[in-house]
Amino acid sequence: MSLLLTIVATWGIYTLLGIGIVLIYRTSRVLNIAGGELAIFLGYVVAWAVADGFPVAAAVPIGLVAAAGLGFAVFWLMLRRIMGQPPHVGLMMTVGIAILLNGLIVILFGGGNVTIDAGFSRTMALGGAILSERDLAAAVGAWVSIAVLALVYRVTDLGLQMRAVAEKVMLSAQRGVNINRVVALSWVLGVIAAALAGTLHGERAFVAASAAVIGINALLACLIGGMDSLRGVVIGGLIVAVSENLTAYYVDPRYALLTPVGLVLITLVVRPWGLLGTVEEFHRV
Amino acid sequence: MSGVRRAPRMPSSLPLGTARTFALRRGRAQWTVCLGGVAILLSLPLVLSAYWLHLANLVLIAVVGAVALNLLTGNARLVSLGQAAFLGIGAFTAGLMSRAAEIPFPLVLVAAAAAGGIVGLIVAIPSLKLRVLYVAVTTLALHFAVATILVMIQAVVLDSSGITLPIPALGPLALDSAVKWYYALFSIAALVVLGALNLLRSYVGRRWVAVGEHDVAAAALGVSVVRAKLSVFVVSSAVVALAGALMAYYIGTVSFESFNLNLAIAYLAMIIVGGMGRVLGSVLGAVLITLLPYLLDQAFAGLGLGIRASTLAGIQEVMYGALIVGFLLFEPRGLAEIWRHLRAAAADWPFRYRAVQRGQR
Amino acid sequence: MTALLEVEGLEVVYGHAIRAIQGVSFHVDEGAIVGLVGLNGAGKTTTIRAISGFLPTEHVRITDGRLRFAGRSILGLRPYETARLGIAVVPEREKVFDTLTVRENLDLAVSAGRTLRAGAELHAKFHSVEDVFALFPPLAARAEQDAVLLSGGERQMLAIGACLLGAPRLLIVDEASLGLAPLVRRQVLHLLLRLNQEMGLTVLLVDQDVAGVLSIARHGYVLENGRVVFDGPSDRLLAHGDVQEFYLGRGNAGERGYRNVKQYRRVRRWH
Q: What is the ipTM of this complex?
């Protein structure tokens, strides 16, 4: 039914954004609180390109290039300086970046609701049920992106180096891995993931200044699944998507966030390192 | 600025007299400056226009909240994104209580602070085992939990219209003018500032700092990390809730929309810009960040540029972000540090450096 | 014979108070095997960290001394930079990536090692994962397993193999035989000797196993409480009375104890 498809689509989007956050966290140990704002900002870039007349197939790559540039800029200008400092500094830095982007969204793009029209209709009939074609497109887009990112992480040289740096930084440096390059690229990948998530959200719903809340959903997914586990994000995303959508549908959309937040608070008390996270990593921070 | 009578001190890294190290003010000159400053502040209502007096009141309320947040995030280094949540708790407690019955103003304030403290305790308990990163996200989750609950309260109990509060009265004196509010808020803010300074010098505060800098080492030295974290959370949340209640009474109405994440980030900006861990930093940061939107407004009006309110809000957010990032990169100790440099330079002028024989400050 | 690695007067301080190593000087000639031996806490690992660029850290700093590799100063270089110059280190503990498979560990060494390759001759012999498998058949059998499942000896082989793929000019091995059975220990040392003789790989062995190390090293330095107290050709060291008593277990060192023996207060040099 339509609710199921919505859940699958939002699950994919939250997981995608969450993967971006975890990739960044694993190599640089910085929690990217600005994930939602990055996603929406880049979603607006794509929406603006589409409104300017670019076909969607060209607008999305434009957004991805902007994402790569933005990711590298955040790494270079800001995070490089604070990589050695205690964790609260990096955290507050991302908070600053988040509100900076929020302001830019309002100034540059107006902050209002903008939908990315990829040519999908709102409704379609499938086997007797009325579904949202947009949700379907978003779901497909999200899960394909996740598969590609997983492939990069598992199979390519870069992914191997990222996994090595995530485990033991010093040993990686000794083996000849250029740590700066790997961390920079993981930021680029993380922001690209955010851009994709924002674009897909804009396609199925809309981008708006208020839509940056998807970053919170992704963070909640990461917390439930385990900050250092990519597979955990998938599970966490499912839990968040299900709990949020069910609450919105059966109770009240305004209280939708309460359920996933409650689940996260329970997780933090009972099993703070998440479902698939490692205890050692939890104590490391 | 030391007293003229004192004998030259031996250069030593140990404080040779604890009285001097821990005194609130040293020397006659500093006392004069201090009292003079207080006199100026107390006479401000006589010279300021209504508009600026209103801003001054907002600044004073922000000072209360910023000082409290700085204790938690600056000294104990527990980054908290829950500032808006606690302000909301204080404000709603005040609103609901004043709506329910004729409860005297001071009692409502105490109740609001107590509500904040209790919630702070509840939040602190899971945070005991968590490190900085997880404490931060716990407070973030708390923010959303509280924000949603406030929405629920307002929708269910109050049919979505917000709460209007009566004009508060301190004994026979009704706070019905900006001037009266100024003196009341000034007293409260002064008490909070002095209380914070006192706490930081006491063993309680020093344990907070020890836990903040290196909790493992602190535990090894016998500091009860549990008690330190609990106490700092409770004290900080209670005072923030107090600020929220004050805000509710001052503005006159309470509604859930004002307690959003931007408010929490604004307070973080106050302590980052002002100087984390320093009470003076909280004050300076509160002044700057509170006045910023109004200064921007004036600037645009003065330049004759018409600008939409929403864009102005955007510019304000960009400035907050830029200030946070900029200060973290370039002057992580904030305005308080810059102030210290200026003071030292002024004291030494025309020399650039201080001679060793003059002893320590 | 040119000195590949020269350490002069090295001093490392922990916190602001404890001198972990003081006035340490030694050199490693190109193509030689040199042993730096000592008991626990003598300062061996600290010396390696200083050479490979892991200092200064938050609490530990190099406060004096000179470090030269192939004629150029390496003081202050970071681990990535010393790796590029051709210094490979097999650490004492965290030597392999547990979450990667054996093959992935080696693939990483190949892909990251593309920027290394300081030792051309070695690179000609070792440039693929298959070369390492040929050298260490047990690794080939476990190629697709996670490295966390390896035994101590296999871990050592994997670490050495990964280092070789970077074609270093100097291989520093910290505690080559720690936790290994005596037979495996001999095999590892014999392997290092082979690498040195057949491929000209310069090796610095830092170890507690004095007998084992000095059996394959040409020259040895004995480190005690942060200072070099003896050095000389291996055969002379092995024959020295104090070394025999306190490091090789012959004589009645147990009864007499360190501090009663005046010889240790003086620094001896044998050439």
A: 0.88
